[in-house]
Amino acid sequence: MKPQVDMHMHSWYSDGSYSPEIMAMAATGLQAACLTDHDNVMGVAEFLDTAQKIGIDTMPAFEGSTLFHGVEVHIGGYDINYQNQVFQKKLLEVTDMRHRRAERILTLTMKLLDLPQVDFKEVVRESDSHGPYFGAWWSRDYLLKEHGISYQVSKQLTSRGGRAYVPYEEECLMQPTELIEFIKYYGGEACLMHPGEALRRLVRLTNSEQRGRTKFYTLLRQLVEAGLIAMEVFSPKHNIEETTEFFDIAKRFNLIMTAGSDNHGRFTSKVPIGREGMSYDDFKRFREKIHS
User: Fold this and answer.
1) What is the pLDDT of residue 242?
2) 3-state secondary structure of 10
């Protein structure tokens, strides 16, 4: 079946390479699409306006960062009151922290690779990043363009367990259940994004498939109790076995199944916009559920 929907895309206001307008235009041919930049909604108005002009249904959204036992878990907030200033101010606390963290990561990476230190502000200015923080893909892009360091090498260095990894300032992030409550308070509903990634991280943390899965199911039950209504079952970050597993989990917990490409523009050029598994009727039912 031809993809009808994409519930998960990024622009240059987080760690994507293109403007919200271009991302909306790239979704031409779909019936519905959502921009879900990390921890900010700066690109939402532009995306909504462009999508409306070209006939793509949409809703305001973002992808929020949380920590569970020190493991990063992403929660999508859909149809939120994104124009609320208090809502935006709370997100700024997160993006300010992410920007500080990005500078520390790049400085450490340059040192480990024996590269000359640079003015971080200048690196940001010279990039096409337009957001409130300098996303990981932009740091990787700088290292590739200026020093020939491949995305694979820089990602390995800066990911959890890598020598240039810098942990989040935990006090700046909400717990997963807190973020769900936050999303609901501002009129939206929550979706667990690419759950396979969270599961794999918990397995690595515990160094045990069984203990990691136990922690994941503990997390999932907490999220459902807090009001989680959806799960991103169909994702390029899931293989066939994982997709089947999360399909069954979503049915068991009565969660709406969403589909998203997690496209970041040219940084993920091999990942097409649009994801099979969620129909336009499913999208409309999701929106109805939010406002029921």
Assistant:
1) 96
2) coil
Query: pTM, whole model, 2 decimals?
Result: 0.96
35: three-class secondary structure by DSSP: strand
Phi/psi of residue 145, nearest 5 degrees: -70, -45
Give the model confidence (pLDDT) of 83-102 as tens digits.
999 999 999 999 999 999 99
Burial (CB < 10 A; 0-12, 13-18, 19+), residue 175, is middle
For the stretch 244-256, pLDDT in tens is 999 999 999 999 9
d(C-alpha 263, C-alpha 39), whole Å: 16
Residue 208 lies inside a defined structural domain of this protein: yes
Q: Nearest to residue 21, comparing CAs of 31, 36, 11? A: 11
In a domain, 116, yes or no: no
Total count of domains within the chain: 1
Dihedral sign of CA atoms 205, 206, 212, 214 in order: negative
Cα 141 to Cα 31, 128, 176, distances in angstroms: 32, 10, 30
Facing residues of 38 across strands?
A: 63
131 domain-assigned:
no
Number of H helices, E strands in the chain: 11, 7
- Can you give the residue range of the structural domain that contains 25? 5-91+169-290
Tokens encoding 177: 């259940």
- Give strand ranges (E) for the chain: 5-9, 32-35, 61-68, 71-78, 189-192, 230-234, 256-259
Q: Measured at the alpha carbon of residue 231, what is the angle toward residues 230 and 233, in degrees to the nearest 5?
A: 140
CATH number at residue 62: 3.20.20.140
